[in-house]
Amino acid sequence: KQEVTQIPAALSVPEGENLVLNCSFTDSAIYNLQWFRQDPGKGLTSLLLIQSSQREQTSGRLNASLDKSSGRSTLYIAASQPGDSATYLCAVTNSGYSTLTFGKGTMLLVSP
Amino acid sequence: SAVISQKPSRDICQRGTSLTIQCQVDSQVTMMFWYRQQPGQSLTLIATANQGSEATYESGFVIDKFPISRPNLTFSTLTVSNMSPEDSSIYLCSVTLGTGPTDTQYFGPGTRLTVL
Asked: Does residue B65 come out as left (phi exceeding 0), alpha (psi in the -120 to 50 range) or beta?
């Protein structure tokens, strides 16, 4: 059974800092990996999707890497802003299925 | 992309009652998914709802407790039956557009349920 772990559970940083969120998964036979952002009352928003054959994806100040063999992914946020404050969720899809296995998330607070 | 709406956005219910949550998508999709997020926990898949067939439930979830309807390709409902405080969670519906490794999953805003 796939298990996804995210570290740290919570993170508080001052505005402008670069930060890294970590995600690990137990079964390396993944189809893809997604990073989501969850804001209260707004559901989940997909930030980045990395296919199993890819090593990284970038979108603006966000960069996600994937090391499938070691079962790890990182989400790098550059020059953090208060608007980045949210819970960040990592989720994997195992080969051929559309259902996601989620981690518990990292709650990020960026202070002005 | 897909735009998903859910009703109600939140509710407070009494033990033993039932609540039906609605999910509407702005495009036709084959599969719709229902997830539960208990306080402090990750999202857990409840079931997959296909139009025209019975929903497929994950281990630990049963149809009697979480009956699902899927009358057409843009709509689904999830009922939480005979509720107890342990059912207090956020319930989210989602859809996947595409069938390949780049398919992105879209989520509704969620329904925050509190059972007293």
From this structure: alpha
User: CA dist B12 to B16, B23, B116, Å?
Assistant: 12, 19, 7
Chain A and chain B share a number of CB contacts under 8 A equal to 56
Query: Residues of B56-78 as b/e, b for ≥16 C-beta within 10 angstroms?
Result: ebeeebeeebbbbebeebbbbbb
The distance of B47 to chain A (nearest Cα, Å) reads 10
How far apart (Å, rounded) are the C-alpha atoms in residues B33 and B44? Answer: 10
Q: Give strand pairing partners of A20.
A: A76
Place of tokens 């630990």: B60
Q: How far is B104 from chain A (nearest CA, A)?
A: 7
Per-residue pLDDT tens for A6-64? 999 999 999 999 999 999 999 998 988 999 999 987 788 999 999 889 999 999 999 99
CA A84/CA A108 separation, integer angstroms:
8
> For residue B12, with 0-12 CB atoms within 10 Å meaning exposed, 13-18 middle and 19 or more buried, which class applies?
exposed
Chain A partners within 8 Å of B48 (Cβ) = 98-99
Read off the tokens for A5.
């772990």
- Identify the burial level of B3 via C-beta atoms within 10 angstroms of its C-beta, where 0-12 means exposed, 13-18 middle and 19 or more buried: exposed
How do beta strands B10-13 and B111-115 pair?
Answer: parallel
